[in-house]
């Protein structure tokens, strides 16, 4: 495919990290194939809405929506189990939070790799970053390195698919800064773990997001029930 434009599958959650990853991939010259998954998460309707809007914005060559409801049936996460509370934000904690969906990223990357192989794509992009892997074991750089080996030996001969997690050493603030530079449509993204509109402003996902925008002196364009100041003193 040396004479053709390279193709990349973007694991498009509907959130700001994956939207920024899509912008980075496009900036690198890739043609985009967006893959969005619904797995019974509390905000799946809003996330799907955002992912489809992003596909339009980035003029994606294809948009694929798959369900992975086995993840909610397996359970073990406050994102998929209504009987578990989504915890209040604790930006200093290094414990695995209740929002962790057991081995989710391996499931999603497997789906994305299948999609990439079927469409002769060269890469799979995921927006995981350093503040994720402090709490989520399947966001660690070592996980992506190991999964790359799985892809290398588990796809047909002659297939080269690069697993790209460009933000593994970045903070959320770094991502927001890069996204602002690349004009990412953050009004078409959603991060809240609890609610579909307005965002709660007090779960971990909202807190990290708001803090990132506050750190770069940019107003987050989505609506919040509360907008606490998460900047460090």
From TrEMBL:
It comes from the Archaea. Pathway: Purine metabolism; 7-cyano-7-deazaguanine biosynthesis. Keywords: ATP-binding, Ligase, Metal-binding, Nucleotide-binding, Zinc. Its cofactor is Zn(2+). ATP binds at residues 12-22. It is an enzyme of class 6 (ligase). Its EC number is 6.3.4.20. Binds 1 zinc ion per subunit. Zn(2+) binds at residues 192, 200, 203, 206. Pfam families: QueC. It catalyses: 7-carboxy-7-carbaguanine + NH4(+) + 2 ATP = 7-cyano-7-carbaguanine + 2 AMP + 2 diphosphate + 2 H(+). GO terms for molecular function: ATP binding; ligase activity, forming carbon-nitrogen bonds; zinc ion binding. Belongs to the QueC family. PANTHER family: 7-CYANO-7-DEAZAGUANINE SYNTHASE. Catalyzes the ATP-dependent conversion of 7-carboxy-7-deazaguanine (CDG) to 7-cyano-7-deazaguanine (preQ(0)). This is 7-cyano-7-deazaguanine synthase. It comes from Halobellus rarus. The lineage of its organism: Archaea, Methanobacteriati, Methanobacteriota, Stenosarchaea group, Halobacteria.
């Amino acid at each position: 495919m040396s004479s053709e434009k390279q193709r990349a599958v973007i694991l498009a959650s509907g959130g700001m990290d994956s939207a920024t990853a899509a912008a980075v991939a496009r900036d690198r010259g890739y043609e985009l194939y967006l893959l969005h998954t619904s797995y019974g998460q509390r905000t799946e309707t809003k996330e799907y809405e955002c992912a489809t809007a992003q596909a339009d914005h980035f003029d994606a060559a294809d948009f694929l929506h798959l369900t992975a409801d086995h993840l909610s049936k397996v359970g073990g996460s406050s994102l998929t189990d209504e009987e578990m509370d989504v915890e209040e934000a604790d930006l200093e904690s290094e414990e695995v939070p209740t929002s962790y969906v057991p081995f989710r990223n391996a499931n999603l990357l497997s789906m994305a790799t299948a999609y990439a192989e079927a469409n002769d794509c060269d890469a799979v992009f995921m927006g995981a970053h350093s503040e994720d892997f402090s709490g989520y074991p399947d966001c660690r750089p070592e996980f992506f390195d190991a999964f790359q080996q799985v892809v290398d030996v588990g796809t047909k001969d002659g297939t080269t698919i690069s697993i790209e997690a460009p933000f593994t050493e970045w903070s959320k603030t770094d991502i927001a800064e890069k996204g602002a530079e690349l004009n990412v449509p953050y009004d078409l993204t959603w991060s809240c773990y609890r609610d579909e509109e307005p965002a709660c402003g007090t779960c971990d996902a909202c807190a990290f997001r708001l803090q990132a925008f506050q750190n770069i002196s940019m107003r987050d364009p989505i609506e919040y029930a509360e907008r606490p100041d998460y900047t460090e003193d």
